[in-house]
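Need tokens for this chain, all 48 residues.
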Amino acid sequence: MDYVLALLPPVVVGLIFWFAMRAIFNADKSEREALARAERESQDRAEN
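Here are the structure tokens for all 48 residues:
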């Protein structure tokens, strides 16, 4: 039981870090997709 109590805090911090990084990368991916879509629309308007 002592091992579980010793390992629990690093595991919890690791999970929090993993969720935070996943959220950051998903937000970045969404932002890149939105910028690419806006750029395509801008180019389409410029061509017409």
